[in-house]
Fold each of these.
Amino acid sequence: MDLAAGNGASPRPLAEIASYHAHIYFDGPDQRAIAAWIRERVAERFPVQLGRWHDVAVGPHHRPMYQIAFAVEIFPRLLPWLMLNRQGLSVLVHPNTDSPYDDHLRHALWLGERLALNGAVLPRTLKDGEALIDPVAVNTAPTLEA
Ligand code: ZN
């Protein structure tokens, strides 16, 4: 992406976004309990892919967290739900395009405190045909209205 692109440049189309991630961060047992509460309620209400718990920092993340992967059409319902229910936890929401680096560091939004990320481990671009971001594999069976 050329950040200097200005007048005359075409905007990037929404079709570049394959899916989204929400990373739910927690620090200590009290926040972990909140994160577990959020996880259970999300599972009951949204068709998403809940990632495994990371109780130690992994990848670009400096704080324990788990990931929620979700399809583009889930965004307008899951995001406001997280706004209302995050209970002080930091949440990173980022699109998945062909640049994991830009996705996390330039195109992300944060709910709550913005945390540092280690961009050095994130690829700037994906090679042609490389599928770094797997398609969302829904592993919840929601039965409740959000
Ligand atoms: Zn992510």
Amino acid sequence: MPSVSQAMPRALALLTAACLTLSSCASATRSPAEGQDLPNTSASSTADNSGAPLAGLNRVSNTNETLHLYTSHIELAEHPGITNASRGAVEAQMRAYVNEHRDSAVRGTDFAGELNVSAKVTAASEAILGVSRDTYEFAGASGSESFATQWFSVPEDRRIDTEELFSSSEAWDHVKAMLAEEATRTKNTTILPHDQLPEEVLDDLQFGANGDLIVRADEYTIAPGSVGSITLTLPSSRIKALLSDYGRQAQQAILSDDSPQDDDAEEQESTESASPSEVTSEPAVDCRRTKCVALTFDDGPGPKTGVLLDTLKEAQVPATFFVVGPNAKTRQKFLKRMAAEGHQIGNHTYTHRSLSGLSKEQVSKELQSTDAAISDAIGASSTVMRPPYGAHNKQVDRLSTTPLIIWDVDTEDWRHRNSKKTVDNAMAEVKPGSVILMHDIHESTVKAVPELIKKLKAAGYTPVRIDTLFAHSKLTAGKAYFRGEHPKS
Ligand code: NI
């Protein structure tokens, strides 16, 4: 059984029917302004691949902490056709999932469903854009993984059908036949009639770095579920003559995994603003004698994290950031600032999957790859971890090399995205030793922090990092903590 944080039942109770309707789900993502009073999913964008050969790309995240939903899609500035198609595909997945689970999520406290959609730019040039979408869905008994890739013409601002990557419908038929052959050859467990592949297998055509055609076939589509997903590869030599102009552009636009991700201009700007630390020399605070509180920020760094860092620096307040791997990679400069300015950085996994549903290997990979991203940025790995949704089990505990820091105060900032509510919720629940949960990917949260700090200080609280809050607690790896040290009352 996953052990879900104590904050969950309250969050469930607060769900309104309106926030679960499809239209509000969609409009919340469509317009952040409209989304203010639609407390369902919250969207945030993270500049991504800005060093890539195509400017204006953004990776946009949607979260619903209650329904265990975490998705991303790609938007391209001044290209509504591309943006709508990429977002629309993910929204359709979200709608189907929310429809299926809203009743059980509202009713139950043991909600175990999960939707995780991870978009990634796999090819980009002035001519063409390729976006892959890896989906994991858990619905009750078992989870399933599926893959899809969308191709877009950049100058035409539209989605290209897979078939258009090939020179004619005969060429496309030929490719399908070769793929079916390959499926049979690769796995003798294939359950297909061997002369054809089901349509859903053909929605994930990509090219490898050497020009090979690669297709990831979802579980159960061409082989028994026990085999899992299958990757089919056709060498470039066999498909080259069959490609259309679009196909050739796609083949040439493939990005390697180590393609530049950071925006150089922004990097420069942040170097200037990263003046010597004023927060580092945190006075020796003993939270057994002082009313301490820890401000914690999850899921980032986001586009506005720099503003938050300015606020914290000005107020001389240290905080703790639980970062996710891809954001730590694309926003390395913010991690550097955090470290230089005296903040603590924690691990919030790589893909934001609920760890209690993962295998041993997957859990380790989630934690290690995020630690690698953190350590790449600041030269040290994290000393604390926060599992997504606060969900963990014995296996997760065993595999964790650091303590698990949950929270005892949930601002629900992701849901209402309202600065005043963020402050009010925090102040209503805060106690000496509290760990306050917020998300720095939301502008409303970043804007709430100056007021929150003012109110906390006025109420006699000293904001500290997690390691200070638990300085005398002998934190143990794999153990979960909700509230820190506080004076005996
Ligand atoms: Ni999170």
